[in-house]
Amino acid sequence: MMSDQKKHEKIIAVQLLGDFVVRYDGDVISLGRNSGAKFLSFLQLLLLSGAEGLSREAVVEALFAEETLANVTNSLNNLVYQARMQLKKSALPAETGIRKKGDRYFWTSPTPVVTDVAQFLEAMTEDGRVTELTRLLSQEDALLTIPGDRQRL
């Protein structure tokens, strides 16, 4: 017998601004004991990349820039393996994980993922403020790179 109540859709809500927090159906999810900086940074980069995925080159540049090439491949493979294992052990849906296609990594989940960053950008786009924000950030970048007097453009 079907209930008259609308079925509650579960989501994975990710807070990337401020403290990194992952929630599933409202509950904070522990991502295991491996909460090292590279592991958390990898997950954050992966979640930020969205449907475009995260290139191997971007991961190496962001997380392994100080390592020798021989160590990078090993370290990256180990990081991805550990991330997959931690996700399997977490309270996230069983199908949640990391998929590699070509040289790109993708977050996979049957459950919709909502990030605060995506919500912020969507809200900014709705009323045209992204253009203004981009202009202001460009000015700030210009101020940082122009030698001498740092007056507003």
Describe the structure.
With 153 residues, the chain is of the alpha+beta class. A 4-stranded mixed beta sheet has the order 3-2-1-7. Strands 4-6-5 form a 3-stranded antiparallel beta sheet. The relative contact order is 0.15. A hairpin with a 2-residue loop joins strand 2 (21-24) and strand 3 (27-28). The radius of gyration is 19 Å and the shape is globular. It has helices at 37-49, 56-63, 69-89, 116-126, 129-145; strands spanning 12-15, 21-24, 27-28, 54-55, 97-101, 104-108, 113-115.
State the gist of this model.
With 153 residues, this protein is an alpha+beta fold. Helix content is 46%, strand content 16%.
- Strands, total number: 7
Unreliable segments (pLDDT under 50, ≥5 consecutive)? Answer: 1-6, 142-153
Characterize the largest beta sheet: strand count, sense, and whether it forms a barrel.
4 strands, mixed
**Order of helices and strands, N to C?**
EEEHEHHEEEHH
Biggest sheet, strands in spatial order? Answer: 3-2-1-7
Shape: globular
> Percent of residues in beta strands?
15-25%
Alpha-beta classification: alpha+beta
Q: Overall pLDDT, averaged?
A: 80
**Distance linking N and C termini:** 66 Å
Topology:
Layout: E1 12-15, E2 21-24, E3 27-28, H1 37-49, E4 54-55, H2 56-63, H3 69-89, E5 97-101, E6 104-108, E7 113-115, H4 116-126, H5 129-145
Parallel strand pairs: 1-7
Antiparallel strand pairs: 1-2, 2-3, 4-6, 5-6
Helix pairs in contact: 1-3
